[in-house]
Specification:
The protein is mostly beta strands and 387 residues long. It has helices at residues 109-121, 235-246, 248-251, 253-260; strands at 3-5, 10-11, 13-16, 19-21, 37-38, 47-53, 69-76, 84-92, 99-107, 127-128, 146-151, 158-160, 164-168, 173-181, 196-202, 209-217, 271-277, 282-290, 295-302, 310-315, 326-334, 339-346, 377-384. The chain is built from four helices and 23 strands. The strands form five sheets. Strands 1, 6, 8, 12, 13, 15, 16, 18, 21 and 23 form a ten-stranded mixed beta sheet that branches. A five-stranded antiparallel beta sheet has the order 10-7-14-9-11. The radius of gyration is 20 Å and the shape is globular.
Length: 387
């Protein structure tokens, strides 16, 4: 498999090749002003484009309590009538003045009902989310969805080889998460956005490798900094707060991870690691690290400390707004009995520097779905093998 991620200009939006809508004039948002459009790579034999847009325009608003960022998830139905393989994805922001970054998730038919229920019960277009789809039964970390693309200013199409792709079935959905930043307007609502996503599809052949997302994680046990104090600096109080916000399944993750990683008890510190034993044969093609706002670095290793040791992913300077898929130099075959180690470093000192966290009380940070919580996940693009 060949995976190509182009870093050129912002993707164009249109319903057909050669029929692109010009992006609106860039606003004063410094990170995006002057962004231009770029056409997708040409279609290859057997491929077709499917252009999809948000159901309607959305005007982002900052969260209650202040701030200038909103993370909004939108449900998009590709309306497939037959199975197809996704071999390329290109996010097309309409309003580059406020669109900061975006993630595209593919949810199989089994998780579609949960996504539709979440969309229906939330007022307005879509729902607020952070770090994932925000829908139980349609999360990447649980294996219920695939993380198929990330867009940040300057990125174009993520292109896969035609002999490998994400399988999309009738009844499946896409979830589009967009991070809107209103820094240029001091957090006041301004302008609407109706972004789109272009899928590159093929019917596949008997030889087409089906790609999946395999998540391997490590605990987050980040204590408050030496100069911080408060009730949530207590680990038990912080876990109780996560449980209150997200339910017992998420709230129990901190203790579950400690047990799964053979710790016996939590070991507070900036750097955490966990070894995972491979249970089924697969081929690893690409990957990226996922953390939140306090993430510093992440590494994924295969069989560390042995003659077969390989570094599969190394992100020494993690950037939450640029969680791009990184192609491995060559596909890596893994077999049952192999060990995959995940190592993450977080930094509580960033809490005073990150706008989204400055006004929040200090806390002992554990696994959770919120902006003030953290994750440590290596998200690998893999294809299962029978032997």
């Amino acid at each position: 498999m060949t995976l190509v991620t182009a870093f050129a200009a912002v993707a164009a939006c249109g319903s057909d090749a050669g029929n692109h809508a010009a992006p609106p004039a860039a606003g004063p948002h410094s990170a995006h002003a002057g962004a231009s459009s770029a056409p997708p790579q040409p279609l290859r034999a057997g491929e077709r484009f499917l252009d999809l847009a948000m159901a309607e325009a959305y005007t982002p608003t900052p969260p209650e309590g202040g701030g200038s960022d909103e993370y909004r998830c939108q449900m998009i139905d590709p309306g497939l009538t037959k199975t197809a393989f996704l071999t390329g994805t290109q996010f097309a922001p309409e309003n580059v003045a406020i669109a900061h970054h975006a993630i595209v998730y593919a949810v199989p038919p089994g998780g579609a009902a949960a996504v539709r229920k979440q969309d229906a019960k939330t007022p307005g277009l879509g729902w607020r989310c952070f770090g994932g789809t925000g829908v139980a039964g349609a999360e990447v970390e649980e294996g219920d969805a695939a993380w198929v693309d990330t867009w940040a200013p300057g990125a174009t199409e993520t292109l896969l080889d035609q002999d490998a792709g994400y399988k999309l079935e009738p009844g499946g959905l896409l979830v589009l998460q967009i991070h809107y930043n209103l820094l240029a307007t001091d957090g006041k609502p301004t302008g609407s956005d109706r972004s789109a996503v272009r899928l590159r599809l093929t019917d596949g052949t008997p030889q087409t490798r089906e790609l999946e997302t395999w998540s391997v994680d490590a605990p987050t046990e980040l204590p408050c900094a030496a100069d911080e104090s408060g009730p949530l600096c207590d680990r038990a109080a912080s876990i109780a707060d996560v449980t209150k916000r997200f339910g017992s399944e998420v709230g129990g993750m901190a203790d579950d991870q400690v047990e799964e990683c053979g710790r016996g008890k939590p070991k507070p510190g900036n750097t955490q690691t966990c070894d995972h034993e491979v249970e089924a044969p697969m081929t690893l093609f690409a990957g990226f690290g996922h953390m939140h706002m306090l993430g510093r670095s992440i590494k994924v290793e295969l069989n560390p400390g042995t003659p077969k040791a390989k570094v599969m992913l190394d992100v020494p300077q993690f950037d939450f707004d640029n969680q791009r898929l990184v192609k491995l130099p060559s596909p890596v075959e893994v077999v049952p009995g192999d060990t995959v180690r995940v190592t993450c470093t977080h930094d509580a000192g960033l809490r005073k520097l990150v706008p989204q966290l400055k006004k929040l009380p200090p806390r002992y940070v554990v696994w959770g779905d919120g902006t003030s919580d953290e994750m440590c996940t290596g998200i690998m693009t893999v294809s299962p093998r029978e032997s």
